[in-house]
Amino acid sequence: MKLWFLGTGAGRPAKHRNVTAVAFQLPEPSSNWWLFDAGEATQHRLMEVPLKLSKLEAVFITHLHGDHLYGLPGLLSTRSFEGGETPLTLYGPAGLKQYIDTVFAISGTTLDYEIIIKEIEEPEEIVFSNDRFTVKAGLLEHRVPCYGYRIIEHDQLGSLLVQRLKELGVAEGPLYGRIKKGHAITLEDGRVIRPEEVIGRPKRGRIVTILGDTSPCLRAVELAEKADVLVHEATFEAGLEEKAHAYGHSTTAEAGEAAQKAGVKQLVLTHFSGRYSNEELSNLVQEAKKRHPDVLAARDFMVIVIDRDEDDSV
After folding, report:
1. For the chain, domain boundaries
2. What is the mean pLDDT of residues 55-80?
3. What angle do CA 314, 305, 158 make, to 5 degrees?
4. For residue 89, with 0-12 CB atoms within 10 Å meaning exposed, 13-18 middle and 19 or more buried, which class applies?
5. CA separation (Å) from 133 to 124, 167, 181, 207, 282?
6. Mean of the per-residue pLDDT values for the chain?
7. Which of the residues 53, 107, 198, 264 has the least number of beta carbons within 10 Å of its own beta carbon?
8. Would you call the peptide bond into 29 cis, given omega within 30 degrees of 0 as the criterion?
9. Selecting from 3.30.360.10, 3.60.15.10, 3.30.1490.270, 3.10.110.10, what CATH number does the domain 2-156+202-303 have?
10. For the chain, where are the E strands, in sequence order?
């Protein structure tokens, strides 16, 4: 799985940094992807990366501030022109449906696919779940209702030990598929082969947490617990906590502290104030590293590959 940072700035676009949008690319062999926030001109950023709008299957909006939302209507419209025909689900705070309905009604926009809008009703709830992933939303501390999202990949069955099957005299074919699904098989000579004999250890599911704008709060830490990657805003540098909190934001040091408390593997800072150039991001990283050892500063078009460690087994 991968994270594509399409915009890493706060408030308004800058020459070196667009406003917030993060794409979550599902694990291979899927070519589908999800979008977290859609600041102004997100669809323009997508022209620079190999993600097709027709393969977008869900959009998760953290809150209804413009720098996280203004790019959504245009992107939804363009998806029709890009061959998008499958239903698309939007998740976000109350008011998201009214916003989309109003923009489309006034502009006369029509789509070639169905939009399903699910507004989050509780401070904490599971908003999505299928056979591969669960997504939990949690209310953060901001000036308007704002959510963070915890993407939980379910634990996967271990790999089929093909060489072991051959040694046991199991011919390739339907029996491989049956035992891979967790069923015992009986051979012609009466021997019973159980899944645990020929399947490797289950693989631990990965966890990715993407937070919206927030001042330090307990729920941010809870959403990030033991995550492989935490994407946390760092609007201001350490020492500007009072200014950050006045606007519902965090500093680099506070992002690092949240990562440390949650026990995450990697912290990725984003949502930087326009006062900081890209050349200054290394200084911001060093501030966060005083609290957590593994820190990156996101830049527009940066890609993070989230692999499993070799010992990531259940």
Report:
1. 2-156+202-303, 162-198
2. 98
3. 25
4. middle
5. 17, 35, 18, 10, 34
6. 95
7. 107
8. yes
9. 3.60.15.10
10. 2-7, 21-25, 33-36, 56-60, 88-92, 115-119, 124-129, 133-139, 147-153, 185-186, 192-193, 207-210, 229-233, 266-270, 295-297, 303-305
Distance between CA atoms of residues 151 and 207, nearest Å: 6
pLDDT value of residue 200 = 84
Instruction: Please tell me the predicted confidence (pLDDT) of residue 312.
Output: 56
What SS3 class is residue 287?
Answer: helix
CA atoms of 211 and 252, how far apart (whole Å): 14
Residues composing the chain: 314
Entry pTM: 0.90
Per-residue pLDDT of 131-142, as tens digits, reads 999 999 999 999
Distance, CA of 186 to chain centre: 42
Report H helices in 204-304.
218-224, 241-246, 252-262, 281-289
Q: pLDDT (tens digit, 9 = 90+) per residue, 39-58?
A: 999 999 999 999 999 999 99
Residues with catalytic roles: 67
